[in-house]
Every structure is written in structure tokens, then in C-alpha cells.
Design a protein that fits this description.
The protein is an alpha+beta fold. The protein has one domain (about 15-80). It is built from 2 helices and 4 strands. A 4-stranded antiparallel β-sheet has the order 1-2-3-4, covered by helices on one side. It is globular, with a radius of gyration of 12 Å. It starts with 12 loop residues before the first helix and ends with a strand.
């Protein structure tokens, strides 16, 4: 399965989640509920930083959608891979 992976030097999982939800809902990211009300963005970023030797995924509800972040950097919204290209 192809997907978008993170450029860890210029992006973070938490920012990708906000962008994915904004794209999915056609909402300005600044108008969304703050991600920190749903999940700790710093913890999410630390869990999936590129020097962490971890294979994991995190799933949570945000803005009425199911979000999954995988350790390879893939962000899915309602089971669909978010592609910001």
C-alpha cells in the first residue's frame, strides 16, 4: 500500500494530523479544535520521531473522524491514507 511518509526534519505527526483533518473536512486548520484537547501532540511526535526504534500505531477520534498514525509516518483518516501531495 502506498502512502505519504513524514519528512521528520520538516514535519511532525501532530502537524500532519491537523493537516489531514483540515483537508478531509475542508476546514482551515486554525478553525479546528486544538489537537491537544484530543491527544498530547508532543507525546505523539516523540513516539514517532525517526530515531525511535518503535513499530506502533495510535488511533483516536478527532473532529468526528477516526485518525490513525503509524510509525512509518502514514496518517490515515477514516481508513484512507492522507496524501498531502
Amino acid at each position: 500500500m502506498s502512502g505519504t511518509t513524514l519528512d521528520y526534519h520538516h514535519d511532525s505527526p501532530s502537524l500532519r494530523v491537523v493537516d489531514a483533518i483540515a483537508d478531509t473536512t475542508d476546514t482551515d486548520p486554525l478553525e479546528l479544535e486544538p489537537l491537544y484537547n484530543i491527544v498530547d501532540p508532543e507525546a505523539l511526535d516523540r513516539l514517532f520521531k525517526n530515531d525511535a526504534d518503535v513499530r506502533a500505531s495510535v488511533r483516536f477520534e478527532y473532529a468526528g473522524h477516526t485518525v490513525e498514525v503509524r510509525s512509518d509516518g502514514t496518517v490515515l483518516v477514516d481508513g484512507t491514507i492522507h496524501d498531502d501531495a
